[in-house]
């Protein structure tokens, strides 16, 4: 899926010759491009010091070249089309063909040189979030450098001093550029590969978009009312599962570049926060959790031993963040009796559908026609029916027979006999209810009673109610 773009045939005329000669390179390193949004196999280091590579969820790691002992990377900031899930594409800005950009993996002590070519319609820069580096390499437009002009290439060079978990993003017109998806992951591996070893090491970024159903480009001025909450610019059911072998020690690293915090929750296992963007946590500072809240701008590395086979949900615990674009502004109808009402409304609004009188679950298979480029609010089929989730949701699949180094989806879990919730088919005991006289029970309303209600045709988006 990686294609290579030769700079002497493509954008050579755009490259500032002065920049290249200043660092003495004969040419720019080639810039590999990615055409797929699928999770790519880990990039085994072909040269340099050895390390245990990470796996980027629905992403990839950027190949490099060695030039006199310096690891050279080439990022191209450019408009991209990102598939958010099958059925929905978005016009985003990113790097080397995708958004987020590729993960950069280096080893503690590496001298790193990153060429950044700007193919966006406005200036940009890259800030290397969390890194120890010379101040002039910090990438803050106006403060430590001028913005990289359209068509130009800048060079960042520093020694990756501290091992750990980092990210990169522009520090130039940030509101627009981050709302459009400009971001990427960075891992500096320890020079001793035996330091805090794990069997699987997954990375991804949390991001959010406001894309009107039927349109393709995020609204960049949105401050709070986002309608798509993503892991690495994918929404469920478009997010790959994280597939591990029973007994594996698993690390999952996440960074938050949305506009709100996300309590990330894992089923079936306890984990510990072993690292932040500030470094590894001291072992005596850790405690067990099943949910960890990640604030805006923070990164967290969590670790657990995958002891229990199964398909374990892994998701943000804010319930609106496990929904997709449609439906956030549908009025609540639970408990309202619609009989007769829909027919009356249909005379005025022919395509009106009554939704939600028994809850919202049937919206997973909502039959209201969707605009062309959007997703139902809750979807994804599991072995037992609709999963009724969207957004920031995926599954950690723990399997006895998942081979080391194999990241392929093993399919749905087959539950051993006697380990599955089942329907009770025996006699039902008489329910004992306390009689009224105090308490907060709601008076019941007979269906034939008049209920006054206002009805609004659901719109795609327009705020929460
Ligand atoms: Cu969330």
UniProtKB/TrEMBL annotation:
Pfam families documented for this protein: Cu-oxidase_2, Cu-oxidase_3
Annotated spans, Disordered: 430-465
Origin: domain of life: Bacteria
Localization annotation: Periplasm
Keyword list, A-Z: Copper, Metal-binding, Oxidoreductase
Main location: periplasm
Protein's name according to its UniProt entry: Copper oxidase
Native source species: Actimicrobium antarcticum
